[in-house]
Fold this sequence. Notes:
The protein is of the alpha+beta class. The protein is 27% helix and 25% strand. The chain has helices at 10-13, 22-33, 54-76, 125-131, 136-142, 148-154, 226-234, and strands spanning 14-15, 43-47, 78-90, 105-111, 118-123, 158-160, 170-175, 192-197, 207-217, 239-241, 248-249.
Amino acid sequence: MKTNSLEWSPDAICLSPEISDLTALASDLYQRTCRTDFNEPGFCLANLGAALDSHAFRRMMVNLKNEMTAIHEREAGRTLHYLSLGRFDQQVSTKPHLDSGPDECFLMLGYEPSEVTSVLEISDYSKCAFEMGLTPQDFLMKHNPMFHSGYEMLRPYTTRLPCFSEADYQIVCINNSVVPFSTDKPVWQGTLHTATVIDPDESKRRVINSTMIASVPLGAKAAISKSEEHEFVETTLVRRRDYNALQKHDDGKQ
């Protein structure tokens, strides 16, 4: 697979935080991910090492979202709500895409240690669209990156995550928005993400704890309840995501 040289330096997108300081980590994640211009990547990876377990990892994800909510309320006068929470064994490669969501949202993906090798790439389609004089939606309609020509157009705006490590617990935050750039009313500028699974293996796992988080007005009704958050942290269930077959439930083993 061809790759371009990094548009962003590893220091801009790769974090090795002190786990004890979630407030500082949340601030770093928010700054890099929830951008309203093109001075930040719109994505980043935090490597939390291997000395965790899955439940503690997911609890940390929820705590980080809460810390980021406090930052968003201070800085934007809005709040953050979960739109979805799930655990998947994802071993199907994808093309550059957005996950279905509202205009301003981001993904917080929690990757657990795995023997299944994969590569993650992020494409700054909002910046590409802006420099072409298009809105992000217009770009996706006219230059669909699912097709080769659109994919090639995004290559100069695509970064392969250089610090992804299957040996560790990692959080990857990705701005998943689809809003035109504005200087009058700052809004989140989104990116596309691509995963290439090098050698899928049904006998092994590539577990992703997947959450989508949206910017919503203060006082908006929550889409996800506290009991659903608790279930996300405590469950042992993993769903197998296969685009060519019916979704199956795992046996729940850890």
